[in-house]
UniProtKB/TrEMBL annotation:
<protein>
    <submittedName>
        <fullName>Uncharacterized protein</fullName>
    </submittedName>
</protein>
């Protein structure tokens, strides 16, 4: 990928130089992100500050890494449109299609081979790399944490033409935690009804959905507890339940290192003891220059790990900091390190 570096020098000739510098950077990032939409170049902004230190901003690498992670894990299958069939993903997810399960967008029946695409996500590391956090929108519009039983992208095409379900098909997901089946698990879908691979997703409960318990047979012949959800549409689906926390909550802010903001980095929080949840700080306060979750929904007293991440020069730039949430919490991200995708995955998988 071609990378273009643009350099700006800022003079320290005013008591407001730092404020001007940050405003200038924000405007330059916005301008260059617009021009980058016309090419596939990764545009970095290199800012030389008055003390001759350099801050490098690169936003496109992070965005590209998200799409790449989704595309790289896209599994391909084929079923017969007339007879239907069952496909099994690499992590044990099953999709069961009945006979005559597909139709064209004009309502005509589909026969012959149908191409099925599947992404299955069961862990926090994949949620982070694919930017698919467990942020759920409540009926009043508040965004809170939900606990996932698996996130999935499912699609069907024939000869490159988009299809839709002619009838419900079953999604069967193995229950991957020691607690076993949870009857509160239900189906969540994107709140913007986006069914494309590159959606930015906030999950919203499908109140008409039905999730039941069952079993799924493993490759070795043993059986595992599973969730079974009849689905009537393609695109993104999340099996989730609302996370209940009875104690007091607070707003939380995260102050990230100089040179990073919402255009080139992201901040997540993992909850100790909840391996199936990963919340995204989905708002950037441009006045405070800090990330926040902006609904005051972080539980006081909860032990968490803050995860700061960017992508620069092909490496993940990250910081992982443990903390206990206090009233009016502000987390300051200190020293960052770099690692590979595999290294970041191992670090996140090791969190409590």
């Amino acid at each position: 990928m071609k990378t273009t570096t643009t350099t700006f020098a800022l003079q320290n000739n005013s008591t407001n130089a730092n404020i001007i510098k940050k405003l200038f950077i924000t405007g330059a990032l916005a301008l260059l992100s617009l021009t980058s939409c016309e090419t596939n170049d990764d545009v970095d902004i290199e800012v030389i500050t008055p003390d001759d230190s350099e801050i490098v901003f690169g936003g496109l690498e992070l965005q590209n890494s998200i799409i790449d992670s989704r595309e790289n894990d896209l599994q391909q299958f084929t079923v017969d449109g007339t007879t239907g069939g069952i496909i099994v993903g690499a992590q044990g997810t099953q999709l069961s299609f009945q006979p005559s399960a597909f139709e064209n967008l004009d309502g005509t029946a589909v026969t012959g081979n149908v191409d099925i695409e599947l992404i299955e996500i069961y862990g926090r590391a994949d949620m982070l790399k694919k930017k698919l956090p467990t942020n759920g929108k409540q009926p009043n519009g508040d965004v809170v944490t939900i606990i996932s039983g698996g996130e999935f992208f499912i699609n069907a095409t024939q000869n490159g033409n988009q299809l839709r379900p002619a009838q419900a098909f079953d999604l069967t997901a193995p229950v991957g935690n020691s607690a076993g089946f949870n009857p509160e698990m239900t189906v969540f879908r994107p709140d913007n009804d986006c069914d494309e691979l590159d959606c930015d997703v906030v999950w919203e409960e499908d109140e008409e959905a039905d999730v039941r318990g069952g079993e799924i047979q493993n490759a070795d012949g043993t059986w595992t507890s599973a969730y079974i959800a009849p689905l009537t549409g393609f695109g993104w689906t999340n099996l989730d339940r609302w996370w209940s926390y009875a104690g007091p909550k607070t707003m939380v802010y995260v102050d990230v290192p100089e040179g990073f903001n919402e255009t080139n980095s992201a901040v997540y929080v993992s909850y100790d003891g909840e391996p199936d949840a990963l919340a995204l700080f989905d708002t950037y306060d441009t006045t405070l220059e800090q990330f926040t979750e902006h609904y005051g929904q972080m539980p006081i007293g909860q032990q968490v790990h803050f995860i700061f991440v960017s992508v620069q020069d092909g490496d993940y730039v990250y910081a992982i900091q443990g903390a206990t949430i206090v009233d009016g919490h502000t987390e300051i991200i200190g020293t960052t390190q770099t690692t590979s995708e595999a290294g970041l995955t191992a670090l996140i998988d090791a969190l409590p």
